[in-house]
Amino acid sequence: MSTDSPLIIALDYPSLDAALCMADQLDPARCRVKVGKELFTRSGPDVLEALHGRGYEVFLDLKFHDIPNTVAGAVQAAAEQGAWMVNVHASGGRRMMEAARERLDRHGLATHLIAVTVLTSMAAGDLAEVGVTASPGEQVERLALLARDSGMAGVVCSARESTRLRTLCGDDFLKVTPGIRPSFAAAGDQRRIMAPRDAMAAGSTHLVVGRPVTQAEDPMAALAAIEAELAGE
Ligand SMILES: O=C(O)c1cc(=O)[nH]c(=O)n1[C@@H]1O[C@H](COP(=O)(O)O)[C@@H](O)[C@H]1O
């Protein structure tokens, strides 16, 4: 099933059962879902099959970062398992991203291939500690332009950078933004956050939301509350 909702719910769970329990409370007509490192490491590809069977489009968020040949193979494997979207780290460099792009094209695989710029949990001090003296905004711009030139369909970034990236890379370049916090939710470990409606106004094309929905007492009510915020209600 395909949806025109920008919402991607992060199924950050330690077991297949827990993830499917949440998926069964949500609706594939109203959101997509994201499978990340913890869940995939525990469940393997079974989780993709189970979610596809329930009608969900799945963003496989494994943030590949390795030598070009290894990443190309991993991206191909994700696409062949039917992932709607898959990501790599832009800091893996041009040749790594181009190898992944070329592999999908060669096999006629239509999965959206995007690149992570600067994680939304990182602020300027965190970047400085790993030797990046640019501000988060500058580093995101640099990596987004590199990602675009290397054939990526878009990037993962904070919504705070979406407006600038829309100007630099255009409307069609996907801006998938985690660190989304509706009015009712706590920031937690996220640093560069934004509310759903503000994020869309800023130019985000997709909003990744985890705990504000998955830790809610009534996840579907939380999803509906986010939809209402998006509609300006
Ligand atoms: O690639 C991601 O999805 C991602 C990138 C990033 O920079 N920041 C980030 O939070 N994420 C993911 O987005 C989700 C955010 O979850 P919540 O903070 O619970 O809403 C988690 O699954 C993170 O792994």
TrEMBL record:
<dbReference type="InterPro" id="IPR001754">
    <property type="entry name" value="OMPdeCOase_dom"/>
</dbReference>
<feature type="binding site">
    <location>
        <position position="12"/>
    </location>
    <ligand>
        <name>substrate</name>
    </ligand>
</feature>
<keyword id="KW-0665">Pyrimidine biosynthesis</keyword>
<keyword id="KW-0210">Decarboxylase</keyword>
<feature type="binding site">
    <location>
        <position position="34"/>
    </location>
    <ligand>
        <name>substrate</name>
    </ligand>
</feature>
<feature type="binding site">
    <location>
        <position position="120"/>
    </location>
    <ligand>
        <name>substrate</name>
    </ligand>
</feature>
<comment type="function">
    <text>Catalyzes the decarboxylation of orotidine 5'-monophosphate (OMP) to uridine 5'-monophosphate (UMP).</text>
</comment>
<feature type="binding site">
    <location>
        <position position="211"/>
    </location>
    <ligand>
        <name>substrate</name>
    </ligand>
</feature>
<dbReference type="Pfam" id="PF00215">
    <property type="entry name" value="OMPdecase"/>
</dbReference>
<protein>
    <recommendedName>
        <fullName>Orotidine 5'-phosphate decarboxylase</fullName>
        <ecNumber>4.1.1.23</ecNumber>
    </recommendedName>
</protein>
<dbReference type="InterPro" id="IPR047596">
    <property type="entry name" value="OMPdecase_bac"/>
</dbReference>
<feature type="binding site">
    <location>
        <position position="181"/>
    </location>
    <ligand>
        <name>substrate</name>
    </ligand>
</feature>
<dbReference type="GO" id="GO:0004590">
    <property type="term" value="F:orotidine-5'-phosphate decarboxylase activity"/>
</dbReference>
<keyword id="KW-0456">Lyase</keyword>
<dbReference type="InterPro" id="IPR014732">
    <property type="entry name" value="OMPdecase"/>
</dbReference>
<feature type="binding site">
    <location>
        <position position="190"/>
    </location>
    <ligand>
        <name>substrate</name>
    </ligand>
</feature>
<feature type="binding site">
    <location>
        <begin position="61"/>
        <end position="70"/>
    </location>
    <ligand>
        <name>substrate</name>
    </ligand>
</feature>
<dbReference type="InterPro" id="IPR011060">
    <property type="entry name" value="RibuloseP-bd_barrel"/>
</dbReference>
<feature type="binding site">
    <location>
        <position position="210"/>
    </location>
    <ligand>
        <name>substrate</name>
    </ligand>
</feature>
<comment type="similarity">
    <text>Belongs to the OMP decarboxylase family. Type 1 subfamily.</text>
</comment>
<feature type="active site" description="Proton donor">
    <location>
        <position position="63"/>
    </location>
</feature>
<dbReference type="InterPro" id="IPR013785">
    <property type="entry name" value="Aldolase_TIM"/>
</dbReference>
<dbReference type="InterPro" id="IPR018089">
    <property type="entry name" value="OMPdecase_AS"/>
</dbReference>
<comment type="pathway">
    <text>Pyrimidine metabolism; UMP biosynthesis via de novo pathway; UMP from orotate: step 2/2.</text>
</comment>
<feature type="domain" description="Orotidine 5'-phosphate decarboxylase">
    <location>
        <begin position="6"/>
        <end position="226"/>
    </location>
</feature>
<comment type="subunit">
    <text>Homodimer.</text>
</comment>
